Amino acid sequence: MALKIAVQMDPIARISIRGDSTFALLLEAQRRGHSIAYYTPDRLALRGAEVTATVEPLEVRDREGDHFTLGKPRRVQLTEFDVVLLRQDPPFDLAYITTTHLLERIHPRTLVVNDPAQVRNAPEKMFVMEFPELMPPTLITRDLAEIKAFRAEHGDIVMKPLYGKGGEAVFRLAPEDLNFGSLYDLFAVTFREQWVVQKFLPAVREGDKRIILVDGEFAGAVNRVPAPDDLRSNMVRGGTPKETDLTAREREICRKIGPSLRERGLLFVGIDVIDGFLTEINVTSPTGIRAVKNVGGPDVAAMIWDKIEAKRAR
Ligand SMILES: Nc1ncnc2c1ncn2[C@@H]1O[C@H](COP(=O)(O)OP(=O)(O)O)[C@@H](O)[C@H]1O
Ligand SMILES: [Mg+2]
Hints:
Layout: E1 4-8, H1 21-31, E2 35-39, E3 44-47, E4 50-60, E5 68-70, E6 74-77, E7 83-86, H2 94-104, E8 111-113, H3 116-121, H4 124-127, E9 138-141, H5 144-154, E10 157-161, E11 171-173, H6 180-190, E12 195-199, E13 208-214, E14 217-225, E15 240-242, H7 248-263, E16 268-274, E17 277-282, H8 289-294, H9 300-313
Parallel strand pairs: 1-2, 1-7, 7-8
Antiparallel strand pairs: 2-4, 3-4, 4-5, 4-6, 9-12, 10-11, 10-12, 13-14, 13-16, 14-15, 16-17
Helix pairs in contact: 1-9
């Protein structure tokens, strides 16, 4: 079954193919004989009832410096496609949210992965709060008194922006840290939104595990160990990917959140687990496919296309 696929993503010329999950998905789609049309978010439009985009046929190759060829642009209705991959990277701002409103109009007649309305409703550090029993103690606010009370109770804390990504502005504050007041002020002027205050998990030194779920089922995992001089495990911040298995607790986390992901049409999801505590449920444009495979794990891209093909065959 050859599918007509469109991918909404940031400029393909700029990606680094060795770690890019979108690229892994596209390579596998092409291998299976699906056709791929490419567009960047700024080529999307809503005209009356029609959702259109100016798309270019895309060919991909796993070759650094020569990883794609684009064909002639044409303006089309997105309902022409069987599947749209929503793979634009955060920031999760009003432009992103507007995109989800547009794509919502064609889903599920055209299967959008992930379901755009659900992506909108499930910002990574907010959605996870539906499972407080799986998380470290966590507070979302910008209220100074609340944060002080939380700090008095938990001592060692982390502060991070609610809509941050890739380890941006993640700070640890030890109980005696005198920088708290200034850091509070800095956050208050820098972010219009509330932010996340969380109990610091010292075992982050052993790593922050990225676990991928496909349609609510465990698919693969990679541990990410932070550099010796950094708190952050994100690979873009120098975290090192390591082979890993799931612990019993991590399997339980997958079992507990799986049904909710499936119900919401969140087909490709990456969760972060530190020391058995769930900290994030990434749904906007999760990564990790290539890292999982590079450490000897399964081919998650193949699992995702198996699922999408099964859904389209129905
Ligand atoms: N509560 C915590 N305790 C210890 N380390 C943390 C905590 N929260 C975040 N970190 C570190 O910061 C990194 C980035 O934080 P995360 O919440 O995953 O945000 P992002 O969306 O930026 O990846 C994590 O991978 C981890 O290394
Ligand atoms: Mg993270």
